[in-house]
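Wed. Picked up where I left off yesterday with NADH-quinone oxidoreductase subunit NuoK. The coffee machine is broken again, so keeping this brief.
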Amino acid sequence: MAVPAEYYLVLSAGLFCIGLAGILTRKNALMFLMSVELMLNAANINFVAFSLYWGNLTGQTFALFTMALAAAEVAIGIGIILVLYRNFGDVDVTDATGMRW
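Structure written out below (tokens, as returned):
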């Protein structure tokens, strides 16, 4: 017996809520990146679940594009974190408000 699509959607909603809570409550830039990754993975689960439900490969194709986007986001995010650490000695994102003009 196959797993119903609702189970995948509940799992995805849970992951997305955990990621959103991580973004809203943390000050550490690394935790921001991990929370965004959780939210992107929740979207990937939705894409693949709907692809399975409708019986086509479109959702899996979008999931691959989302993984490529996540890899690019991590590469840029790590660079930003390194600049934060080099300038402030910490990865606290509230210190970065001093970088405004």
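Quick read: The domain at 5-99 is CATH 1.10.287.3510 (Helix Hairpins).
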